[in-house]
Amino acid sequence: MSSSRPFVVIAEFRVKPGSLDAFLDLAHDDARRSVADEPGCRAFDVAVSESDPLAVVFYEVYDDRAAFDAHLETPHLARFRAGFPALIEAERPVRFLARSLSGAEPA
Domains in the chain, start-ordered, CATH in brackets? Predict the structure, then answer.
């Protein structure tokens, strides 16, 4: 395993009213395929705001930037990219972070 910190990606979307189920279908496919098919993808969570059910956040963790760059070339991301623009009102700028700690990992 690399000594570099895991690479974290946070993506946020505002979904159009009436489009949440279709958006989540695409998002769940991308998330599941990322974890199943990409050795460098450690986690890919899709979360919906309790206070604003049209606000969706992705929290993705990759071994490193190279693993994320490989994700950008996958067929499941291509499916998501093809389908999601018609389903959203807005997309916030993607944020990139270096994870300091996961409480799920042993010390």
Answer: 7-93 (3.30.70.100)
Q: What is the pLDDT of residues 42-73, one digit of tens each?
A: 999 999 999 999 999 999 999 999 999 999 99
Based on the number of CB atoms within 10 Å of its own CB, is 23 exposed (0-12), middle (13-18) or buried (19 or more)? Answer: buried
Phi, psi of 80 (to 5 degrees): -60, -50
pLDDT in tens, 19-31: 999 999 999 999 9
CB 63 within 8 A of CB 42: yes
Strand 95-98, strand 7-15: pairing: antiparallel
Q: Which of 45, 56, 51, 50 lies closest to 21 in space, CA to CA? A: 56
- Given a cut of 90, whether residue 105 has pLDDT beyond it is no
